[in-house]
Amino acid sequence: GNPLFASGGITIFEVMSGLARKHNAINLGQGAPDTDGPADIRQAAADATMNMSNQYPSMMGIPELREAVARHNKRFYDLDIDADREVMVTAGATEALANAILGLVAPGDEVVLIEPLYDSYLPIVKLAGGIPKLVRVTPPHWELPRDELAAAFSDKTKLVLINSPMNPCSKVFSDDELGFLAELVKRHDAYALCDEVYEHLVFDGRKHHPLMTFPGMRDRCVRIGSAGKTFSLTGWKVGYITACAKLLEPISKAHQYLVFTTPPNLQYGVAYGLNQDDSYFNGFTAVMENKRDYLMKGLREVGFDVLDSQGTYFITCDFRPLGFEGDDEAFCQYLIEKVGVVAIPVSAFYQQGDVRHFVRFCFCKREAIMEEAIERMKKVF
Ligand code: PMP
Ligand code: GLN
């Protein structure tokens, strides 16, 4: 096979969910809710399945969803988006990311990436022939090393990939950091690929600010969202890209050869979802913030050093206060086999280095499930 994929392992999320099933452990690993998204959204997709065409929809996505994405951009971020020319529907954020990287990066172009990295970023950059330039943020504060970031840019930089709110560290980039990044992008005449799948999972009264809203960035950003995250429907794999027509055009060329289009019934469901009033979005954030608080309190009681979680589905913890001898992979193995709980080792998000004492727990779960996981950990630690 292609050494790019063949030499790598199975993605950490699949590995850990497989182990959860095998050991019948509570899965606080992979980021997926254990309760399905709203019944009315699912009903809208069911109605569309029965009443609308089930044949190939337009390659760019059904007009109803593209318009809903444009309206969502206006409502939350005051962005004026042309639904016909600046929105494309994809098979989840994963395909959106792949389209953007394959469509925009030519062999030899440099791509600036910030570790910890979501699993698909680096393989697709390499597939495109891009040259990755890695900068890292590290626990416990995940501060952006500005000098290193500036040094990672050059006249060969085509793209910087930014994930805010950021998986797995739950960092929400500050306006100051985003402004700094925007200046670098403009100075080097580059573009930003903005993975904003957790845009509605931002806590403690913070607001999500897309890089696209910063001065001069409207036509330099490719903004990606995911219905999986926003509506707790991860299995649907519906994502959406917002970008100016000049950037979207090459991105759509990648999409036409990767999947061409995505299921129309699910697109109708997501359009219905995005058109809901603010109470859905506010309620969703509030429910998830409560879940975060619940798991955070439990993890503290177990004895972890629990880091701040400003957004996403995740909490990162340092397990050294528990007295465990070994690295994060050994800890996760112990946790599965001896405790019956699954977490994700944070080192899986780094190419190399010394981040070996942190694990990620996922809190988009029912309280009773999280309670049971905490009880199991309290018994052992
Ligand atoms: N980006 C990040 C940062 C993620 O955590 C995820 C996880 N699901 C994705 C992209 C992929 O989203 P989707 O399931 O819509 O492909
Ligand atoms: N984004 C999810 C996570 O970080 C997993 C998605 C996947 O399994 N590919 O847990």
Automatic annotation (TrEMBL):
Keywords: Aminotransferase, Pyridoxal phosphate, Transferase. GO terms for molecular function: kynurenine-oxoglutarate transaminase activity; pyridoxal phosphate binding. CDD domains: AAT_like. It comes from the Bacteria. Residues 25-376 form the Aminotransferase class I/classII large domain. InterPro entries: Aminotransferase_I/II_large, Kynurenine-oxoglutarate_AT, PyrdxlP-dep_Trfase, PyrdxlP-dep_Trfase_major, PyrdxlP-dep_Trfase_small. Belongs to the class-I pyridoxal-phosphate-dependent aminotransferase family. This is Aminotransferase. It comes from Thalassospira profundimaris.
